């Protein structure tokens, strides 16, 4: 499946794949709980960014081709949304 990527250490990928899948599955309900908590308590909004960054780190252990810098584009989009909507600029 990953043999088309010449610089990937396949033994590492095969070893860590079950852990990455388990972490990704565990993050789904945690993300829903976090979204509901932020919906009720807006001061928890920065944790969404931390959660998404953690998800990016976990998914970074898989050698999928994201086409250029797709992960960076997603992070920039999340940062823009966070800065523009989640922060309270004050008076």
Question: What's the tally of helices?
Answer: 3
pLDDT average, as an integer?
75
How many strand segments? Answer: 0
Which overall shape is indicated by the principal axes computed on the Cα atoms? flat
User: Which consecutive residue ranges, at least 5 long each, have pLDDT under 50?
Assistant: none
Account of the protein in words:
The protein has helices at 10-40, 46-59, 70-86. With 91 residues, it is mainly alpha-helical. The protein has one domain (10-86). The longest helix is centred in the N-terminal third of the chain and has 31 residues, at 10-40. The protein is flat, with a radius of gyration of 16 Å.
Topology:
Blueprint: H1 10-40, H2 46-59, H3 70-86
Sum this structure up briefly.
With 91 residues, the protein is an all-alpha fold. The protein has one domain. Helices cover 68% and strands 0% of the residues.
Task: Offer a few descriptive terms.
flat, 3 helices, 0% strand, mainly alpha, 91 residues
């Amino acid at each position: 499946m990953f043999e088309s990527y010449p610089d990937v250490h396949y033994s590492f990928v095969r070893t860590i794949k079950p852990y990455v899948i388990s972490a990704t599955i565990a993050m789904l309900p945690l993300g829903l709980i976090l979204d509901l908590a932020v919906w009720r308590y807006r001061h928890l909004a920065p944790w969404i960014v931390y959660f998404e960054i953690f998800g990016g780190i976990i998914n970074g252990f898989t050698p999928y081709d994201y086409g250029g810098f797709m992960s960076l584009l997603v992070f920039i989009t999340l940062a823009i949304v966070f800065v523009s909507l989640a922060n309270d600029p004050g008076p």
